[in-house]
Specification:
The structure is a single chain. This protein is 32% helix and 20% strand. The protein is of the alpha+beta class. The strands form five sheets. Strands 1-2-6-3-7-17 form a six-stranded mixed beta sheet. Strands 11-13-9-14 form a four-stranded antiparallel beta sheet. The protein has a three-stranded antiparallel beta sheet with strand order 4-5-18. Helix 3 crosses helix 13. The longest helix has 22 residues.
């Protein structure tokens, strides 16, 4: 077994330098994103690391292929982070790693800089102590995951032969909750769009023109209210096409997972949970698609009739749904409404992603379960579902023909994308041991990856 540092201090000092780079993919300078990529490349110097350009932010590539005849894996993660949001909501500066009891805080520390850091330290320990990795490993870290990976598909297709692997392991994709170790066997797909309602040529004084022209905000509100029925079901005909019925066996599996509805409700600060009728809270999270209104842009707190009103809408998709058919169903529903005095358009965003699944009996799931069982003895390894979306999974399956194993040591409660993002310090060491065991199991023995 590998030996890791006896103290966390050196690891945290090093991780602090990574977190200090404000690599917000939405609006950071190219120089900042380049600096984050170069930080990673320096950590991967043992594997001929290089920073390679895309038409957006660069990717970091590295390859250690010193185990001929052994399986090959591709390790994926990202170095970009979400915007900080309101700085007044942060307890500590977002780009200063701060120890707070048994956690560290900082933007990106759990999504995805800390989980990627774990992988780097494991690889470095193998080479320092055994002078080799147990199997062939390629590394691909991108800088645009938080904005939907818009330039990753072209890069992967162009470099498909170089990236070929028997399995992809993602350092992204948090465990479901901190109470037990978990592996995700599915993630939801994603479709986003704007619903746009246009009225007059420009904003109008609400006193001089009110009551004589249609208000785009009124019309948009009517459209949005029509998207769901009173029982929480999406009202667009065809939205649910292709989804298999939830079997009695699957419902029994989900019902067997300990889940506290009252604790869930209370933790969110809401009076009661709500969603599609006929399903439990956990069934809705794991098995059912959603349509959410994420924001509305129009006018403001001043007395005008806005000439345009736009709703930002997202759909999380489940297996069986095709993004293009869901878009068609929503578009047909929206345009079928008879609204006077306005023009309506549905404008989809690029980068729709279908849902992703990996079989529960896949060799990678078996190996990962065995690794987690050793790190967390006497705790059952839960097979969960990521209710969010990781765009690269469908891409890797389509282009590389490889399944993706989610193997992250962040957890979903660590304020990902929110102020005061944090990572449990214990996860660093637990993650290092688990990644070591996983690589050994995939390289040899009953869980060895087929080439």
């Amino acid at each position: 077994m590998l030996s890791f540092d006896a103290s966390d201090a050196e690891y945290l000092d090093e991780l602090a330098g990574y977190v200090a780079i404000p690599s917000v993919s939405r609006d950071a300078t190219p120089e900042t994103m380049q600096a984050a990529a170069e930080w990673l490349a320096a950590q991967l110097s043992f594997a001929e690391a290089r920073v390679e350009p895309t038409t957006g932010h660069p990717v970091v590539r590295a390859d250690w292929l010193g185990a001929p005849g052994s399986p090959t894996i591709l390790v994926y993660g990202h170095y970009d982070v979400q915007p900080t949001g309101a700085l007044t909501e942060w307890r500590t500066p977002p780009f200063e790693l701060t120890v707070d009891g048994d956690v560290v805080r900082g933007r990106g520390v759990t999504d995805d800089k800390g989980p990627v850091f774990i992988v780097l330290k494991v690889a470095q320990a193998f080479l320092a102590q055994e002078e080799a990795l147990p199997l062939n490993i390629k590394f691909l870290f991108e800088g645009e995951e938080e904005i939907g990976s818009p330039h990753l598909p072209a890069y992967v297709r162009e470099h498909a032969e170089e990236l070929a692997a028997d399995l992809v392991i993602s350092a992204d994709g948090a465990m479901w909750r901190p109470s037990e170790p978990s592996l995700s066997i599915a993630s939801k797909g994603l479709l986003t769009m704007n619903i746009e309602v246009t009225g007059a040529d420009g904003d109008l004084h609400s006193g001089r023109f009110g009551g004589t022209v249609a208000n785009p905000l009124h019309a948009l509100s009517e459209i949005l209210a029509s998207l769901h029925s009173a029982d929480g079901r999406v009202a667009a005909d065809g939205f649910y096409d292709g989804i298999p019925d939830l079997s009695a066996a699957r419902r029994a599996e989900i019902a067997a997972v300990p889940f506290d509805d009252e604790g869930y409700r209370g933790g969110l600060g809401v009076d009661e949970v709500f969603g599609e009728a006929g399903y439990s809270t956990l069934e809705r999270l794991w098995e059912r698609p959603t349509l959410e209104i994420n924001g509305i842009t129009a006018g403001g707190k001043y007395t005008v009739i806005p000439h345009i009103a736009t709703a930002h809408v997202s759909c999380r998709l489940v297996p069986g749904q095709r993004p293009e058919r869901v878009l068609s169903a929503i578009t047909d529903h929206v345009l079928a409404r008879k609204l006077t005095g306005v023009r309506v358009a549905v404008r989809p965003d690029e980068g729709a992603v279908p849902a992703y699944t990996i079989p529960a009996d896949h060799p990678a799931i078996r190996a990962a379960s065995a690794a987690l069982a050793e790190v967390y003895p006497e705790q059952e390894v839960l097979l969960a579902v990521i209710a969010g979306t990781l765009p690269a999974t469908a891409l890797f399956e389509e282009v590389l023909g490889a399944k993706t194993l989610f193997f992250s040591f962040s957890t979903a409660d660590e304020n990902l994308h929110a102020p005061n993002e944090f990572l449990r310090i214990s996860r660093l060491r637990e993650g290092m041991r688990a990644w070591e065991l996983l690589w050994r199991l995939l390289a040899d023995g009953p869980h060895r990856l087929a080439r």
